[in-house]
Amino acid sequence: MINSVRNTVLAILNKNNYGYISPSDFNLFAKQAQMDIFEDYFTTYNYYVNKENARQSGTGYADIKKGMEEVIDYFSLEKDLTHDAANKFFLPSPTTTGEDYYFINKVIVVTSKAEAENVSNKNITMLTNSLLTSPTDLFPAYSQEGNFIYLYPNTINTQGDVRAQYIRYPKDPKWTYVSLSGGEPSFDQSQPDFQDFELPLDDENNLVNKILQYAGMSIREIQTVQFAQAEEQIDSNELK
Amino acid sequence: MAYISAYQYYENGGVAPTDSNWGSYQYVSLFDIVNNFMLMYQGNHSLVNNEPRYKILFHAKRGIQELNYDAFKEVKILELDVCDNLRFILPPDYVNWVRISMYKNGTLYPLSENIQTNWSDAYLQDNDCNILFDEDGNVLKPEESKLDLDRVTGQKKSIYLNQNSQFDGMEGYCYDGCWYFDYTLGSRFGLNTETANINPTFSIDRKGGVINFSSGMAGELCVLEYVSDGMESGDNSKITVNKLFEDYIYAYIEYAILNSKLGVQEYVVNRARRRKTALLRNAKIRLSNIHPSRLLMNLRGQNKWLK
């Protein structure tokens, strides 16, 4: 998809001789655009949940929320969390699980097969002191601090005790190329650092619009930005 | 929790204690209750939304505690010897007593709760009745109050018609086979049925955590029937609810949360309250086991002549 997006962006930019963006600029804009759209998934998902609560959403093919869930779940992973010390475990990161996380959806205590509940730092002390609700093996809890989570009861303290299901960030897209004799870059997806967009195909339009906005800003061409914004607005209205 | 095989039920899979699953099918566990509530009654399209699990757990436990106090009718029974100190330390999960009996000669004798106190705290006083303090300003106390001492040594008289009765050993008149006594102050006609019991009496010191008996209980065996709150000493895996009350517990949790949540319409709260109350009523009726055959047995006695 990345080559198609780039070709479209370049075609629009070149049509009126607005300018040209280099592969490295394109990769920067592509990463930014992908992140924008990725983060929008969650607000859009919430929007459709509210629509469903207001009985303004359908089922079957009209169930847009389900589609959003599928898109988000594409980025879902479940992995063991690395143990640090006592009841302290590392959050997912490139050095421990291999990637950064965007959203921790659930933390599971492997030994008891129970889901640990996220409790704010404000409440965790009161909760552990509570007679009725203090965390137990059946109802464990965790709080978050920096790059760590703290599991309660603190008998959860061994490597392999804790797994997390989380949403990772999409990988940075990279349009790779080989230089031809005239200096013209030619798309080459066989390069080891090639990375396509991870968003679904139906987001290609959005990607083009977002990248055009960044590119327009870059080459100081306000018409390009306005065009892309108008396109984005149309797309957004169609969804509602 | 998964369903278990017959072997698992009868023999616990051969693991001791082998009786641990007996009767377990009557109950649903706390874990299942919280899990089911989070799945079925909480979520984006439910009345209860965005509530942390520990709140559900709290209300589930509170509901179970309330049920244990009366609706469940699940009485625990503990037998202990009463020594010369005439004291029975309340069990660790004690909340309230149902019946206290003396087990003697193969028979359970139900004891009466003394309508008067039989224990007391005391302060040391001088001859002018001034209270005495130590150098830190704390009041000085004797090891035992006079009331306690007299009770333990058997000198305290009782208004009950037992061995410590105030009339025991008094001079009276035997007329026509019946004994009559003079009263030092005022007079009384007929028998005070409230205190007409020969068995020893007891009084509960709730804060002190003991049952204090009259001296007639020294060396006797006491059987305490009591109710607990069902919290099983904090072991969540053992907390259960009778299945007849399962729906009620869900309704109770839902009501408790809606009732304390900001912005919930009053009619929604009222609906939840009525549902909870109706389900409790239904469960109590079911648990009371009113069977036609049992009613029939009772009705058969309706024409029996009473003398």
Q: What is the molecular shape of chain A?
A: elongated
Average pLDDT of chain A, rounded to a whole number, is 87
State Rg of chain B.
27 Å
What value does the average pLDDT of chain B take? 89
Strand content of chain B: 15-25%
- Put simply, the count of helices of chain B is 7
Distance N terminus to C terminus of chain A?
26 Å
Order of helices and strands of chain B: HEHHEEEEEHEEEEEEHHH
The rough form of chain B would be described as: extended
What's the total number of strands of chain A? 10
Oligomeric description of these chains: heterodimer
* Strand-residue proportion of chain A: 15-25%
Distance between the termini of chain B: 57 Å
Biggest interface, which chains? A-B, 15 and 16 residues
Give the low-confidence spans of chain B: none
How does the major sheet of chain A shape up? 8 strands, mixed
Q: Estimate percent helicity of chain A.
A: 40-55%
- Helix segment tally of chain A: 6
* Series of secondary-structure elements of chain A, N-terminal to C-terminal: HHHEEEEEHEEEEEHH
